[in-house]
Amino acid sequence: MGTAAVLTGLGAHLPPRRVTNADLAERLDTSDEWIASRTGIRERRWADPGVSTGDLATEAGLRALKSAGLGDDARIDLVVLATTTPDHPCPATAPEVASRIGLVDAAAYDLAAVCSGFVYALEAASNAIRAGRAANALVIGAETYSTILDHTDRTTAVIFGDGAGAAVLRAGDDTEPGALTGFDLGSDGTRRDCITVPAGGSRQRAAGGEPAEADRYFQMRGKEVFTAAVAHMTASARAAAARAGWPLGTVAHVVGHQANLRILRAVGEQLGLDPGTVVSNLDRVGNTSAASIPLALADAAAAGRFAAGDRVLLTAFGGGFTWGAAALTWPDLAAVTTDERSPIR
User: Fold this and answer.
1) Could you tell me if 233 and 317 are in contact, meaning their C-beta atoms sit under 8 angstroms apart?
2) What does the domain layout of the chain look like in residue ranges?
3) pLDDT truncated to tens, each residue of the chain (345 aa)?
4) Closest C-alpha among 74, 79, 76 to residue 92
5) What three-state secondary structure class fits 172?
6) Whole-angstrom Cα distance, residue 2 to residue 156?
7) Considering Cα of 189, then 186, then 168, then 281, what sign does the dihedral take?
8) Is 257 an annotated catalytic residue?
9) Helices H, strands E: what count in the chain?
10) Residue 78: which residues within 8 A CB-CB, separation 6 or more?
11) Beta bridge partners of 6
12) Among candidate residues 343, 334, 345, the one with its CA nearest the CA of residue 64
């Protein structure tokens, strides 16, 4: 028996504005059938003007604390916010989110690993707990991808949505439900141009001059990403399960990054698991990048899909390239996902 980070709360928040495939087909050369058949997506949520990643993250964090039975006087030692769309290049968004939630003096930082961000953030918070540097942590994945999309590009504008999901972790032992018992992370920077926003950073600014308009927005080479995502999500899930000491046949659920339904199905098949083990809410929320795994977890938990003691594999792939997986024994908890808004500070 050893110290482990244990999941005790889960919360999710989606902006209210639904954007259906039919809505997009009115202004793009596409259709509901084209989008759904290639991605599995039927609709996504986009934040209203003036709503930021920090706003969504704050709401998800408040809900996760409520799920964990913690109130305004909660003691959280660490906040890790995984995002590709921070409120500002500087400062980080996490300290403001922590302040708005009421977490006094908590260490707080942003983590950028694109769609793998939430798994990376879980591992970072878990390490802090296992090392004794934090007794409790709040891990958030939040995105407003609608702010970095070229809305005239049907190859990307139809895929991504906005949202936030959050998890509360506490120190416990690796034999109890909720324990995170195995991680695997990796990257390949030689493939950095496959998923990118070329402009806006120091490399573009150091080159001088104004960037091309298209370089201000998210770009992706879909076919290359598809192949790499299946390979790395599968291999990483296998590695995490092995580190947890789990035979793959004992895994009850696989919660992958919600990028594409065909990717999720291919990962399940390559792991040799029944299709019913693969969790997906992609049809209703689209690809929400770092928010996708906690949103899928919260959705499945709220629907009663998980039982305490179930073995759950999380696996993700994102820009960088980055990838990662985690092994989680499901606890007895209910996610907070209602549409009622908490008082945002």
Assistant:
1) yes
2) 1-345
3) 578 999 999 999 999 999 999 999 999 999 999 999 999 999 999 999 999 999 999 999 999 999 999 876 778 999 999 999 999 999 999 999 999 999 989 999 999 999 999 999 999 999 999 999 999 999 999 999 999 999 999 999 999 999 999 999 999 999 999 999 999 999 999 999 999 999 999 999 999 889 999 999 999 999 999 999 999 999 999 999 999 999 999 999 999 999 999 999 999 999 999 999 999 999 999 999 999 999 999 999 999 999 999 999 999 999 999 999 999 999 998 777 754 443 333
4) 79
5) strand
6) 44
7) positive
8) yes
9) 11, 14
10) 106, 107, 108, 125, 128, 133, 134, 136, 137, 138
11) 170, 179
12) 334
Any idea which residue has 């895994």 for tokens? 251
Residues 6+ apart with CB under 8 A from 322: 113, 114, 115, 116, 120, 185, 186, 187
Q: Is residue 4 helix, strand or coil?
A: strand
Is residue 182 a contact partner of residue 241, using CB atoms and an 8 Å limit? yes
Q: Which entry of 115, 232, 253, 260 is annotated as an active-site residue? A: 115
Instruction: List the catalytic residue out of 13, 232, 253, 257.
Output: 257
Q: 21 catalytic, yes or no?
A: no
CATH 3.40.47.10 holds for 1-345: yes
What is 269-283 written as a DSSP string? Answer: HHTT--GGGEE--HH
